[in-house]
Here is the input.
Amino acid sequence: MTPRRERRYRDALVAALRAGYAVFENGGSSMDAVVAAVVVLEDTPLFNAGRGAVFNAAGEHELDAAVMDGATGRAGGVAAVKRVKNPVLAARAVMELTPHVLLAGAAADRFARDAGVPMVAPNYFSTRARARALVRARARSRASAAELHGTVGAVALDGCGNLAAATSTGGYTNKMAGRVGDSPLVGAGLYADNATCAVSATGHGESFIRAVLAHDVVARMRYRGETLALAAGRALDRIVALGAEGGLIAVDRAGHVAMPFVSEGMYRGHARGGRYTVAIHR
Ligand code: ASP
Here is the structure.
């Protein structure tokens, strides 16, 4: 990580925070804010979501994303889409326009197109850095930790006390075609519940699915009365126990923020009262 590269990441994080915060200044909801922030991150080639997403073993991009609204418990997601420019927008459309929670594959792409979500050619997502990562991963026939992460997400609490969460990813380099991770799965890669907190997670998806990670944070607060920080830390302990890495961002109903991770670093930031804080390392 050169200083110049670090600056690019920091600038991208601030841009996402600004986009989310601008929503609140214009009277928008927490759902509007998390979607606005994630769109910026999906459009930034640095992260593994939207443009800049990793390649799977078939040399393609299959993108997963989801949103959840803590006020109503409604949620929407898309899995393994190949042509949606901003998968988070398709996820929101699933929530708002269908009776379903998750749509997958070519039919999800078609649904998004018909819903008016911007579409792109599959090579729009490709970057040279991710192509090199695929070559390296194929040589080793597995993804390395450094290439594993880069999933993006956002959580927010608005002035009405409504919480929302969004997560978007390309999965991980050299994953099998058709593989779906935790990111579009309510309870694993994200959760939002106005009575407790909103969570968005990143890490080894199979472990996050097995641990039902995001909902574990919510359940600990709800049933055990744990604080957000304690619940988030204990939930991640289960990821460690599974031998995996990852992290999460979360905000509770009182506005406490927790961003724990069990990996080398995690690109993260928060905005409060028009002030932005970003960090990468411990
Ligand atoms: N959780 C994502 C997945 O498994 C990858 C990541 O967050 O790095 O699809």
Notes: The chain is about 40% helix and 20% strand. The mean pLDDT is 95. Residues 3-25 form the longest helix (23 residues). The domain at 3-281 is CATH 3.60.20.30 (Glutamine Phosphoribosylpyrophosphate, subunit 1, domain 1).
